[in-house]
Each structure stands twice: as structure tokens, then as C-alpha cells.
Amino acid sequence: MLTEAERQARAEKNARLKDLRTHGSWLVLDPQAPFCDEIDCSALFSEIRTIADDG
């Protein structure tokens, strides 16, 4: 059985995942863009690894 602290941690993790999915859904590839920038996603992947390790 989960303790209250574990329930709270799980709820916070799920809220962060939902927020991440929401922001990720806004990303759109624009094939007409005249430039090609690199996006540093290391912080994003670090957060995903942290969440995965917590689960």
C-alpha cells in the first residue's frame, strides 16, 4: 500500500508528465522555414530520465 508521501510524489510526477506532453504537443515542424536551428533538448531528456528513475 502506498503512503501519503508516495501518493503525493506520484501525483506530482504525473502532473509534470502531463505538462510535458502538453508543451510537446505544441511543437510543429515547419518545412517552409528558411533556417535549421538545433534545439538543445538535454534538459528535457534529463527530466524524462529523472521521472523514469522515480517510477
Describe this structure in words.
- The protein has 55 residues and is mainly alpha-helical.
- 64% of the residues lie in helices and 0% in strands.
- The chain has 2 helices and no strands.
- The chain has helices spanning 4-25, 42-54.
- The radius of gyration is 16 Å and the shape is elongated.
Task: Give a brief rundown of this model.
This protein is 64% helix and 0% strand. The protein is mostly helical and 55 residues long.
Give the ordered list of helices and strands. Answer: HH
Number-wise, the strands total 0
Uncertain segments: none
- As a percent range, the share of helical residues equals 55-70%
Enumerate how many helices there are, as a single number.
2
Shape: elongated
**Main sheet specs:** none
What would you call the structural class?
mainly alpha
Report the average pLDDT across residues: 78
Distance between the termini: 15 Å
The percentage of residues in β strands lies in under 5%
| Gyration radius, rounded | 16 Å
